[in-house]
Amino acid sequence: MKFYSVAIPSLAMILVATSLVREAQAFAPPRIVASSITSRTPGFANLRQSIRYDRINGEVEDDTSTTLQSSASDIELTSGKRRFLDSLPRIGRRKDELDDNILKTAIPNMINLGVVPLVNAVDTFWVGRLGLALALAGQSAANQASFTIFFLISFLPNIMTPLVASAVASGNEEEAQRRVCESIFLCTTLGLLGTGLLVAFPKQVLSALVLPGDAPAMAYAAPYLRWRAIGMVPSLISATGFAAYRGMLNTVTPLKVSLFTNAMNLVLDPLCMFGGGLGFLGAAVATAASETLGGLTYLRLLLRKGLARWSILLKPPSWKSLLPLLQGGAAMLFRQLTLNGAFLIATRRAQVMDPTGISGAAYGIATQISNVGIILMVAMQSTTAALVPASMAKEGPASARKCADRLMIWSTLMGIVLAVVQYASLPFIVPIFSTLPEVREAVKLPAFIASLTHILDGPIFAGEGVMMGLGSYRDLAIITGIWALFMVGGIMSPFGQRLDGIMWTIFFASIIAQISTVGHYLKIGPLANLKKKKEMEMETAPFS
């Protein structure tokens, strides 16, 4: 068994590495007519070529002479029933270029985001083979603490995606390069602070976030967290690289990097734990090593593609250039804190609901099952955040609205399908997580409610992606704050003293979020009332 567990991922790693080498060779400067290069910045020959993509294989088309013929004036701004019909996906023979771009961006995103939870499950599997319950508990606590610090810092790459998308779509290569380098510099600086905190004070961080100071699992969690923290800076660089490629509508290259690095993690897990004699710490070492490889791979790709330069990476950005990034970053940081805080309160409420731990286990299983669907919805969110600003920069607001309308429908359909599939699969999935009849029975209603919530998630995640893509970070933070207040209020009320009450509270809070998000998109957002705005411009044009 150990041979196959190492040999199969090794073969996959070799195949993906070969593909990455070929793609890296494609980044070499192609033969370009001198007049087609408008930037005097070194390395931008490659980036100039990458403005148009062959979205079938994620590689660059060698066609700088092609220009977009359509414009905002060519796109009719419809309303009412006709707008809804125009936003429906074109399935089968009727599928158009927009649907094609959406699917070829979203599907690799989904696979890429889905790989990480799968590999984390394999890490847990190998630690579980040691037969030490406290080692499993310590690993879980350390990973939770590491993820919390990571997500508090990784708001910067999320902001960078639409900025890069707009810059690349409009042909502003210097702006794209500057944004990528600024994000890497800030992420590295903050990541070093986070790494130092976790390495120097692991017990204090763990006791503040997830474990009591005298918990037996602390003896395992603290050293695990120290090793796990080594990969934080490379992980942030990887997040920036992923965001940059997503902004260029190339999701295939990040997928290859993810498969390559995670295959290495699968190989190193048993080698470090059993072959290297590190025991449960070997899983942390393997994870940190694979994250370091991922960060170095992305850095090399960004340098080869002209999206990063050492002279800019090593230079602190000016306050003037940082101000827009930090303004959006503050709103996104508030949003991350709000989301994490609300779900942390829900988790603690479920954990202390009964001394047997059945409610806590049932809540954990329900959320674990639901998170699989959430990953797919996050992929739709990031796809929206990349495609909408790219359409805005290329063809104007009318094209961006058409793209956003179509993504809204796609995301809604995805939510409905997820709800049906998740509910239908519950009888088969729940027994995998627990053999206790009491837990299996307790998870039925919460898991059903979580399935229903996916129906609401579709428009929510697409609407949030539109706000991220067009820079409406403050409005997004306000909507998230309203959702969190409603959710926490329900959880702290008598209604939240039951497990189904917690899940129903999340469901009703999601209704508030859906109304707010869709209302923002249709009524007050950057793409709202475009037809009326255009008519007003036409009326005032003769007098201007």
Automatic annotation (TrEMBL):
GO molecular function: antiporter activity; xenobiotic transmembrane transporter activity
Position of the signal peptide: 1-26
Superkingdom to which the source organism belongs: Eukaryota
Main location per the UniProt record: membrane
Subcellular location field: Membrane
GO CC annotation terms, alphabetical: membrane
Keywords: Membrane, Signal, Transmembrane, Transmembrane helix
Transmembrane segments: 149-171, 183-205, 225-245, 322-345, 365-388, 409-433, 476-495, 501-522
UniProt topology in membrane: Multi-pass membrane protein
Family matches, as InterPro entries: DinF-like, MATE_fam
Family named by the database record: Belongs to the multi antimicrobial extrusion (MATE) (TC 2.A.66.1) family.
Name of this protein: Protein DETOXIFICATION
